[in-house]
């Protein structure tokens, strides 16, 4: 193929068979000889040229297989905009080819794994953002793909393709029997293509004794079904999740996915294929971890991540419901004499789920049936929690309370014996969103946690890891503050007087205990996206204290605790530095600051004011941290990187 890489006069015409053989030789060399794949991957011109070969339908599979191997070992992501005529190439693919192409594309739009070292800390990310102002190659590739006309629409159609009659027999296969075919899908296609060619050649010469084997036909039919109804969806879920996270603000991919009816399509497939049966046990893989799970498990995780991204802080989240369920939400608002959320009012009912049950209700149903030690619970809880995130909605909460979600979560935390920190964290977060400012939820909590033994078990779970449970602690503190101002509401007063949880948090010493521990378990150099919530929960406790003119009381208590622990200045110096970094991190991020405001119902201006007051330089100020650190122990102005 070398003559085709450089233009030297007339290009020789190469037969498809010759190119196919070349690709086969190269692929086998990659498999059998160490270093060949990396050598080929280093050649930009060769990799780009391979993409152009995909326009030839006869050699598409061989080309796709080789490209996938080569891209998997490249250290640097290929730039899709440099591929000649990429848009017309993609538009020329049939649905089968497009699905295979998505498998290749998933490598080009995913950021490299940051691993488990210091690179994932907020401080490291902040430093990296200062030195790199240009979009990454993965981000540029996302822009390139979204700009291809009709691309998102075709993905939605592919993801929601229904089971065909021809595939009914193969649909009865258990999912666990499919992954062996999935891993060899391209090979099977190539074998089938060869068999068809031989059969056609025999027919041409009148030879009938070499008919296409029936077994080969059945295998191919099964393979086609799998590839179009599971394997391809898995790739698209992986693909779509990246789009939703990265591209919403620029191209409004979210709106396109809604308009092309991705959610009702997935709802129709949920029971038939997506969650037909429970898979065998597996190990939980978090978002930035490599995963060697079977395709079935990976597929389900990506599906749940897609739902999480789709509904997270977005008004289109109501598309996860059916028309009947939307009516139920409206009735809840009406009965509670509360104004209906604008997002609910604006939901296009032509785009919601069909039938009586929407995707959210189906998800809750399978979550309640999931084995208690299944790590699917982590992703299921994350997906449901994303529906509740943002400004608290009374009707959304009641909708889920009616489906027994709160009692199920409490069972998992208190009575199930669940030991997974990840699963427990996801349930603490979900419980916080479900109960925030909702007096009915606290009443239900008290009804389930009806003995001192159960309540102490609940507190033990919370205290076992505040990094995992601090969002729930924040919810309780915020709710307590609101309920204390609703003394004219008979219902609130009644629940307040009976609820163990509210009574516990109402004691100042308990709030101070949480504050001390929350500010002790983090520092600037260990802050990540997962534990920065501990800093924000600490701030919530202090903001509410400031509202009631009790901020000096809390700061004095922290100082006394330092001396009691024989580490004077340690805690307050650390907290001071954390707040300086908070300013650096949040004052430049509109999305993060909006999330803080919406979730707490505290204006972001008050967040900023409180941090400024705490960082005040006037040593006579009773609300400044510096006033509570003795001169000998004060260390407030060092650079973050020197700490």
TrEMBL record:
What superkingdom does the record give? Eukaryota
GO cellular component, alphabetical, reads: Cul4A-RING E3 ubiquitin ligase complex
Return any one Pfam family short name. Answer: DUF3689
The protein's GO terms of the molecular function aspect are:
phosphatase binding
Which InterPro entries does the UniProt entry name for this protein? ARM-type_fold, TRPC4AP
Q: Which GO terms describe its biological process?
A: ubiquitin-dependent protein catabolic process
Entry-linked PANTHER family: SHORT TRANSIENT RECEPTOR POTENTIAL CHANNEL 4-ASSOCIATED PROTEIN, TRANSIENT RECEPTOR POTENTIAL CHANNEL 4-ASSOCIATED PROTEIN TCPC4AP
Q: What is this protein called?
A: Transient receptor potential cation channel, subfamily C, member 4 associated protein b
